[in-house]
């Protein structure tokens, strides 16, 4: 194979002039990380609420939560993203929709991707939260109620603190997934890592260098997250529980 | 407020159906190759040869830490080079081929983790019993471990297949006209993106949701 390797390409000034191609990669990394972290906040909050609702003794609330989880789990992430990006602005009231379409495209892309990734992941987090709560012995809830706690208090002070500690390992893998899934945002043009890889191919005609560099960056994200989460898992592990499923 | 107009869908049904066939082609190829190659990887990984085991582990970990989008793009870059080396420059449209290769090799990594857990869930005594009966290592694996392992992990393998079915929509990044790609193109052509995207979402939901209900029923029957 006669491929001309040229790793020096990353230090050349980029097509836009004010940056190097390496700088482009770091811009991509920055967007990937901020997209993933902000979506993770949404996923944790919404996922916890939906997960709790699935376990409450009220048929309407748990039915709603089940429907939510099934809806977000059975439609491909890419389709969900396109629906948020192309469909939602049309269905909003005209003023709001137009205001959205006239805002900075980068923010439009980021906002839609964040919402989409966050809610998509929230359905998975909800399943973990539910399995964490269900793995606790029934006696815990009854003991709480017998002590005179109200049901919300039982969840707040008895069930949730245990459930979160038990589901740390599966939450870690969801957290890793959110970084990988963030690559889907490339399809609506957000300049995250995968997008930058494709742009570098277009601008530098050095596809292998660009792809290897971006792949290595994803691996680094993976290793870093894994390292931090393992330490956290060890800290919060509940003796006697294997930890979720 | 937006006026819905679904009129461009009926005429596009034949096109959409062709797209759906491509979606199924990618899904089924990836399931079959993924499970076979995944089994090889899983057996290698728990096998006696330390170097091969390390290589298999490396393969699995590499594929599992890179986004699927990147894997699809990678193979779109590599597969044509390989094909050109074998068949010369006239290779036609390689999008489907590279998608098939990418999904098969990518899914194998995920399947191999399920299969490895399945094999390790069969109790140790079964291996000892097999060996004590005079079976070779390979016979024990083939006749005793794998049948039980596959029985235990069928629900997980099927659940992974449903995830895979949804993930095939990502071939959008290399412009392959699978079901989603076709729906997008039709919507774009007729200026009816909103309706086509909602329609595509509904179809994916119906297929995945009914498949997952089937898996649940199957699971209930498997659990003793």
Element layout with pairings:
The complex is a heterodimer of chains A (245) and B (224).
Chain A: H1 21-55, H2 59-73, H3 77-91, H4 94-102, H5 105-135, H6 138-146, H7 151-166, H8 168-181, H9 193-204, H10 207-236
Helix pairs in contact in A: 1-2, 1-5, 1-8, 1-9, 2-5, 3-4, 3-5, 5-7, 5-8, 6-7, 8-10, 9-10
Chain B: H1 8-46, H2 50-65, H3 68-87, H4 95-121, H5 124-132, H6 137-167, H7 179-190, H8 193-222
Helix pairs in contact in B: 1-2, 1-4, 1-6, 1-7, 2-4, 3-4, 4-6, 5-6, 6-8, 7-8
Structural class of chain B: mainly alpha
Q: How many angstroms separate the termini of chain B?
A: 54 Å
- The ordered string of helix (H) and strand (E) elements of chain A is HHHHHHHHHH
The total of beta strands of chain B comes to 0
Share of residues in helices of chain B = over 70%
Beta strands of chain A, count: 0
Distance between the termini of chain A: 47 Å
What does this structure look like?
With 245 residues, chain A is mostly helical. Chain A has a single domain (18-236), classed as MetI-like fold (Orthogonal Bundle), CATH 1.10.3720. Chain A has ten helices and no strands. Chain A has helices spanning 21-55, 59-73, 77-91, 94-102, 105-135, 138-146, 151-166, 168-181, 193-204, 207-236. In chain A, helix 1 (21-55) packs across helix 5 (105-135), helix 1 (21-55) crosses helix 8 (168-181) and helix 5 packs across helix 7. The mean pLDDT of chain A is 91. The mean pLDDT of chain B is 92. Chain B is an all-alpha fold. In chain B, helix 1 (8-46) runs antiparallel to helix 2 (50-65), helix 1 (8-46) crosses helix 4 and helix 4 (95-121) packs across helix 6. Chain B has one domain (9-222): MetI-like fold, CATH 1.10.3720. The chains are: A mainly alpha (245), B mainly alpha (224). The interface between A and B is large, with 41 and 34 residues.
């Amino acid at each position: 194979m006669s491929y001309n390797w040229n790793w020096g390409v990353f230090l050349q000034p980029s097509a836009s002039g004010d940056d190097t191609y390496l700088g482009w990669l770091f811009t991509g990394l920055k967007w990937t990380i901020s997209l993933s972290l902000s979506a993770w906040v949404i996923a944790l909050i919404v996922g916890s609420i939906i997960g709790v609702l699935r376990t409450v003794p009220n048929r309407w609330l748990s039915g709603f939560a089940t429907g939510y989880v099934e809806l977000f789990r059975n439609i491909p992430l890419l389709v969900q993203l396109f629906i948020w990006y192309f469909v939602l602005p049309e269905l909003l009231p005209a003023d709001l929709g137009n205001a959205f379409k006239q805002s900075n495209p980068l923010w439009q892309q980021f906002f839609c991707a964040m919402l989409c990734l966050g809610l998509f992941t929230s359905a998975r987090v909800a399943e973990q939260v539910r399995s964490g709560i269900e793995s606790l012995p029934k006696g815990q809830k009854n003991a709480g109620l017998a002590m005179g706690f109200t049901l919300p208090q039982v969840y707040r002070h008895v069930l949730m603190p245990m459930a979160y500690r038990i589901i740390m390992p599966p939450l870690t893998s969801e957290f890793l997934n959110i970084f990988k899934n963030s690559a889907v945002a490339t399809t609506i043009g957000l300049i995250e890592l995968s997008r930058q890889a494709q742009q570098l191919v277009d601008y530098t005609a050095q596809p292998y260098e660009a792809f290897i560099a971006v792949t290595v960056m994803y691996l680094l994200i993976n290793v870093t997250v894994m390292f931090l989460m393992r330490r956290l898992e060890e800290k919060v592990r509940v003796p006697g529980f294997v930890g979720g499923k | 407020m937006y006026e819905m107009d679904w009129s461009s869908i009926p005429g596009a049904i034949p096109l959409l159906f062709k797209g759906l066939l491509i979606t199924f082609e990618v899904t089924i190829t990836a399931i079959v190759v993924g499970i076979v190659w995944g089994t090889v990887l899983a057996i290698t990984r728990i096998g006696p040869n330390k170097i091969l085991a390390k290589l298999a582990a490396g393969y699995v970990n590499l594929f599992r830490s890179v986004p699927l989008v990147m894997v699809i793009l990678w193979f779109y870059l590599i597969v044509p080079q390989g094909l050109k080396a074998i068949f010369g420059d006239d290779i036609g449209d390689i999008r489907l081929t590279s998608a098939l290769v990418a999904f098969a090799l990518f899914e194998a990594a995920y399947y191999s983790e399920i299969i490895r857990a399945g094999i390790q869930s069969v109790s140790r005594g079964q291996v000892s019993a097999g060996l004590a009966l005079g079976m070779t290592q390979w016979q024990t694996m083939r006749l005793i471990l794998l049948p039980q392992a596959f029985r235990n992990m069928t629900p997980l393998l099927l659940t992974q297949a449903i995830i895979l079915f949804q993930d095939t929509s990502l071939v959008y990044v290399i412009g392959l006209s699978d079901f989603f790609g076709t729906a997008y193109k039709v919507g774009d052509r007729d200026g009816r993106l909103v309706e086509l995207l909602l329609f595509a979402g509904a179809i994916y939901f119906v297929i995945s949701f009914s498949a997952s209900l089937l898996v649940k029923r199957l699971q209930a029957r498997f659990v003793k």
